[in-house]
Each structure stands twice: as structure tokens, then as C-alpha cells.
Design goal:
Layout: E1 9-17, E2 21-26, E3 29-34, E4 49-56, E5 62-65, E6 77-85, E7 89-93, E8 100-103, E9 120-127, E10 133-137, H1 140-143, E11 158-166, E12 170-174, E13 180-184, E14 197-205, E15 211-214, H2 219-222, H3 225-236, E16 240-241, H4 249-256, H5 260-272, E17 276-278, E18 283-285
């Protein structure tokens, strides 16, 4: 039985050239290096020492490639999703000729939040119970060493990154500069995919130098036309006006062009959003 560990990088010695490639000596095992697994113009001499990556071919034989991947069993890295196979998982490109499977067992329960083609996953290599090579998504423990402190973010500043963990409570992402972010389920319209690149805004810079983010627009951008009309009037009048939900209906129609009931609904929405407040005679923008 071949005891070589796939998913590892090894030093090999060229034994001889054959019709389909080269036979290598890897830790006293004969391993095939196929021509397809090396550069076209590469010519190897007997006794040459080379670095190779070991993996299983379609017949589950251990073979080698000179195309060294970006990730291995000890090294995490980003890999692009190439193909999605329901009931099986997704295949990713790790930089070799062979695409590696991320098993359904290591993906979210709900396929709606599985990664799709061109998404990116942060992975290392591992194996299943039969010893077959797999790509394993990073856990929070695995990804924590690359986190950097959030130093350049302010409230409502834009933030973007790639989702590396998601569930019903929320989703964690990491920015291009390796800052960790979290999106609570109340700050998104739908659950983002694992591996999805998201763009949002910062709603909190936390004491632990991470950020909380929202994928929802600012409250001012979510309001209905009647609320927009009221808010625009307030902004034109230094943030205050002598009208509230007790004002005369004729005054409301003349000033705002809406009925008293529509005016009250719009006021109520703005107050629920904590954008405005009112007293007995005045409505004003909350500072």
C-alpha cells in the first residue's frame, strides 16, 4: 500500500523518462509525473531533483505535478470556485491541473448560501475517511491569525470583503486588508453566500478592532416618497418645522401636498426610524 501523503509538497528524483511522462522516486516510492502535469517545454534529466505536489488521479493512484499549489495541508489560502455539483459539493482551483472538491459535508446546510462559480473560499487541504484529497474551508480559529486591526474605518464608511462564515444569526467576512467584519441578520435583506464578495457600510468599530457592518442602505435612503417630502422640507428649514401630527389638514395639504392621514403615516415611519421627533407644536430632525 502506498503510504505517500497526498496534498503535500515533496522533493523527488527523476528515475527515467517514459512514453507518458517521467517516473520519479518520492521517498522510495515510484510516482508518475505526467507530461500534462508540467510545463510543455520542460525537459528533465535522470537524477534531477525537483519539487512536486502529490495528488490522486482519477484511478486513485498517487501522482505528481510540478505545478505547486497556493495551498496545502499546512497552508491556508484563497481558491476560486470553478464548478458546483449538487449533492456532492463545489470544486475549486488551487493552482494545479486538478480541481479539488469541497465536500457537501463542509458547506452550509442550505444550498441557497453555497458558493457559486467565481466566488472565493479560504481553504487548506485535508482528506476524507477514505484518504481522498479534499479542500477544507477555514474555521474562525484557522483564519484568526491573519486578522489585522480596523484602523481606517469610521461610522457609515464603505466596507467590502469576502464571506468566510455564514448562518442564520449572521455572517463573518474579511476585507482585502484582512480586517474581520460581522453582519447581523437584522442588517441584511437575505443571507449572503459563503465565498461571496459583499459591499456594505460600517455601523460599528468594536473595541476588539473588528467591525460590524450593514448591507442595508442608510435609513434616509429607505424611506417612502411622503417621508422624503417631509424630510426634505425639514432640511430646508434648519431641521425643524411648526407642523406635527396634530396640525391642521388644510395646512398639511397646502405645504406638503398630501392628506392628513398620509402625513401622519410618514411622520410615524420617520419617528420609528429615529430620524425625527416631535413635541406639542414642532417636528425636528434628531441630531
Amino acid at each position: 500500500m502506498n503510504s505517500l501523503l497526498v496534498g503535500t509538497i515533496k522533493l523527488a528524483i527523476v528515475i527515467r523518462k517514459i512514453e507518458t511522462g517521467y517516473v520519479l522516486d518520492v521517498e522510495d516510492h515510484d510516482v508518475l509525473l505526467h507530461f500534462n502535469d508540467m510545463n510543455e517545454d520542460e525537459e528533465l534529466l535522470d537524477e534531477t531533483e525537483i519539487e512536486v505536489f502529490l495528488y490522486h488521479d482519477k484511478n486513485e493512484q498517487v501522482v505528481a505535478t510540478t505545478m505547486i499549489p497556493r495551498i496545502d495541508r499546512e497552508t491556508f489560502g484563497w481558491a476560486e470556485v470553478i464548478n458546483v455539483v449538487p449533492q456532492l459539493g463545489v470544486f475549486v482551483d488551487i493552482g494545479t491541473t486538478k480541481e479539488i472538491l469541497v465536500s457537501v459535508d463542509d458547506l452550509p446546510i442550505y444550498t441557497e448560501v453555497w458558493p457559486i462559480e467565481n466566488d472565493f473560499l479560504y481553504l487548506a487541504l485535508g482528506e476524507d475517511r477514505r484518504g481522498r484529497l479534499l479542500a477544507i474551508p477555514a474555521t474562525e480559529y484557522d483564519i484568526e491569525p491573519i486578522f489585522e486591526p480596523a484602523t481606517d474605518f469610521e461610522l457609515n464608511s464603505p466596507v467590502s470583503g469576502t464571506i468566510y462564515y455564514t448562518n442564520r444569526e449572521g455572517a463573518a467576512f474579511i476585507t482585502e486588508n484582512n480586517v474581520r467584519g460581522f453582519i447581523h441578520n437584522s442588517e441584511r435583506e437575505e443571507e449572503p453566500r459563503l465565498g461571496e464578495f459583499i459591499e456594505g457600510r460600517v455601523i460599528e468599530v468594536k473595541d476588539d478592532a473588528t467591525v460590524n457592518a450593514s448591507l442595508l442602505p442608510l435609513k434616509e435612503e429607505r424611506i417612502d416618497p411622503d417621508s422624503e417630502t417631509i424630510l426634505a422640507y425639514l432640511k430646508l428649514n434648519d431641521g425643524t418645522m411648526p407642523y406635527n401630527d396634530k396640525s391642521d389638514p388644510e395646512d398639511i395639504r397646502d405645504i406638503f401636498g398630501m392628506s392628513k392621514s398620509a402625513f401622519k403615516r410618514a411622520l410615524g415611519k420617520l419617528m420609528r426610524e429615529r430620524i425625527i421627533n416631535q413635541d406639542e407644536s414642532t417636528t425636528f430632525i434628531v441630531k
